[in-house]
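## Example pair
The file below holds two records. Each record gives the amino-acid sequence first, followed by its structure token line.
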Amino acid sequence: MIFGILAEQTKALEQPTQISASAQTQDQISASYGDFAVTGDASTVSFADSVLTISGGEHSVSMGEGKSSTNQAIKIVGATTLTLAGINIESTNGAAIEIAPNASFDVSILLADGSENELVGQSEAGDGWNGSAAIQKNGADSTGTLVIGVPNNSLGTGSLVATGGKGAAGIGGGYEAGTRNITFTGGSVKAYAGRYGAAIGGGSSGTGIGIKLLGGIITAESLFDDYPNMYQNTIGSGNQESFNAADNMLDGDVVLIASGPSAVLGGFSLNRGIYFEFNYGMNPFVPFTYSYVFENVTISENVELPL
């Protein structure tokens, strides 16, 4: 069912620009790396073994010429602002986008206006589990932050779909890994858990702490395929750790649509926003449904909600 919500629109369109060869400054590039087209500082980009590695700076990435999808991956190993300008990754070697484990540096992932970005973590490895998150930030004690949002002065029309592999979150921890300090500030984000993982938060047996939903339209869904052995949060911690989620919050001009088989939100403060919950409890076919509005919320004009 689609709902249209009208509200004041205050932001102007600003598309990310590509740097042409004639307009390049020193160390700036606009070039192909594997299946990707990258604009940014050439000194902080490398490509080997089907992985695009970024060690810092500001970059924009899209699919290369003639490419609509890839199984190649992106790894971030230093403080980075990365704009996704239309990428489609189904990784066969770990996370689609991986932030170095236990990172102490900050990463921003921005969704370019009008771009559609789809990321799928490796489904399984080794013993048939050991899947990876679509955007993976392993480290229950990590001091670094991950912010997912939109560029300054944008309309917020960029979108992201993130699907985790077995035992992994859609966004957050991989198999048996916790995560910390993930913030959402804008855009349309859909996150789907791998089996036993949170959609946003910890992988199986991993905690999800410090998840802040401050802006955008966020859809999160955890799987219902093995009840009663599933105790993960949809947003928060993975299987068996749902009661250890903490310091998570809904607080801003944000719409959250969350569904799952158990404790949908873990360790949450519900301060401001619009929240729709579909809690399946013990019935995978007929959920309990709830809707809430906390304080005054302003979102973009004619927003479609995938309820």
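Second record, same layout:
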Amino acid sequence: MNVTHLYIKSQPPHNLMPTQKQSDTAIFLCQLLSNLYQPIQVFRYDQKLKTLYIQAGLNDEISVIIDQDGNWKFVL
């Protein structure tokens, strides 16, 4: 019996993952929060909006959104 194997290299679609700039900014901000002894409560990538969301602080008082270009802003 002759068996043929088919190997498919799978990669996640690009819209399901943050960009490299978003990832770099997220690492920077998480390190900064950690250095300031602020707990990170939520870390989420929104596939629809293509943004990263970080919520931190003892009372969840710090909220940040990171866009696809790696720019970040506080959410008020």
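Notes on the second record: Strands lie at 40-46, 51-56, 62-66, 72-74. The mean pLDDT is 88.
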